[in-house]
Amino acid sequence: MLGLKRLAWSGVEIPSTLPKPDLVPLTGGYRKTPVMQIGADIYCDTRRIAEELERCWPEPSIMAGGRGLANVMSAFAEGPSFWTLAVYVMGANADVMPASFHEDRARMRGAAGADIKRIKASVPRHLEQLRPRLAWMADLFRDGRPFVAGDRPGLADFTLYHPLWFIRVNGPGVARVLEPHPALIAFMDRIAAIGHGEMRAMSAEAALDAAREAMPEPPAGVMANAEGWREGDLVEVTPTDYGREPVAGMLRGYGPEGITLVREDDRVGEVAVHFPRVGFAIRHARALCDAA
């Protein structure tokens, strides 16, 4: 997305497993990546990040084919399909991944611990499910189109690319499953050629300083809603799939596309944390309500 919009940006490298001591002050506990920071505003999940990039830098648009296409592609490629290929990759590489990684991913799934033998034994079953999904993806390009929506790349393409990239970078043995689909491989090469914009490395401390020295943008407000949420409610927001660490704060934004919480942290002060609606559950924060 950043490459298509030709943006200059700073990137902080974070650990792939917990603990993530320099991320939690910004997100309030949300542990997954990617996360985008603009001052004291923290955007979680690719969908929410994409919406903010489009709002701030509308040209060139990343919404080729429309938001509906991008959202449907996200539901397919980042939902059960991604879990299928993730377990396939983890099982195929089980012997070369550190035990700490397996334990961390087990906790993300809500399991008590990692059963590596079981993960390895599940590879044929997940591979059986992955192959037809790859065929579906390849069928998108049967008519020769270069991108999902036609001649222009967009969010739907980047969403489709991510799980394919995850397969490709995890070793030739794993990536062999892509070989029957040259159209997918060519598509991946086209997306990779777009690049990532102009990136420079940034320290975690510098990112925390940037949040501490800024104030969140004025919130969008809480729209009228059937659920009864009101501005100022003390709430928790939690992913509905995995990595279900709740983020607690005061509700400042609620609408069709997103949820915004404002929270305080000793290291960064006041920050606003933004989530998409889809894929995240909101509930009253009992502990916060009791304390209030």
TrEMBL record:
Entry keyword set: Transferase
Domain GST N-terminal as annotated: residue spans: 1-56
InterPro entries named in the record: Glutathione-S-Trfase_C_sf, Glutathione_S-Trfase_N
Molecular function, one GO term: transferase activity
UniProt xrefs under Pfam families: GST_C_2, GST_N_3
Protein name: Glutathione S-transferase family protein
Keyword Transferase attached: yes
CDD domains named among the record's database cross-references: GST_C_family (cd00299)
Classification via SUPFAM superfamilies: GST C-terminal domain-like
Domain of life the protein comes from: Bacteria
